[in-house]
Specification:
Layout (H helix, E strand, L loop, with lengths): L26 E6 L3 E6 L4 E5 H6 L4 H4 L23 E7 L3 E6 L7 E3 H7 L3 H10 L1
Antiparallel strand pairs: 1-2, 2-3, 4-5, 5-6
The structure holds zinc ion (2 copies).
The site of one zinc ion has 6 residues, from helix 4.
Length: 134
């Protein structure tokens, strides 16, 4: 991540260079809040992730360890619990498949593929669906 922090990405329209053939939705808008990160996807889905959940699900090698299922939908427990007041300070688009976040604890190496993000989504619909699946 030698190019971190990226310039002005927080105001960039992420849909501009979206890959039309991709099977996954693209993030059209990302908002970083005090308690949660919200992502509006190109398919109309509105994802909500609590900051703590997202930080603790960081799939980077330092957090998740070797062999983390990058791109999988399984939740990866963090080795170290995130502080309650953790928040994302910046985000960046990584290629056409992932978002990266910089966190208030100084961590910024996690890359979250879209399908992994969607698997972490805490919107009402996703929570209900996951509860139904057990
Ligand atoms: Zn990490
Ligand atoms: Zn959802």
């Amino acid at each position: 991540m030698s190019r971190w922090p990226p310039a002005d990405l927080s105001t960039q329209d992420l849909s501009e260079r979206a890959e039309p053939r991709t099977r996954l939705p693209n993030p059209k808008a990302v908002s970083l809040g005090d308690r949660e990160v919200r992502v509006d996807w190109s398919d109309g889905h509105r994802s909500v992730f609590s900051n703590k959940t997202l930080r603790e699900a960081c799939p980077c090698a330092g957090c998740a360890g070797e062999g983390a299922p990058l791109g999988g939908r399984a939740f990866i427990p963090l080795k170290v619990a995130a502080p309650e007041d953790i928040r994302a300070t910046q985000y960046s688009r990584v290629g056409l498949y992932a978002l990266a976040f910089a966190w208030s604890d100084g961590h910024s190496t996690g890359i979250y593929p879209y399908d992994y993000l969607l698997g972490l989504c805490e919107c009402d619909a996703c929570l209900a669906k996951r509860a139904a699946q057990g």
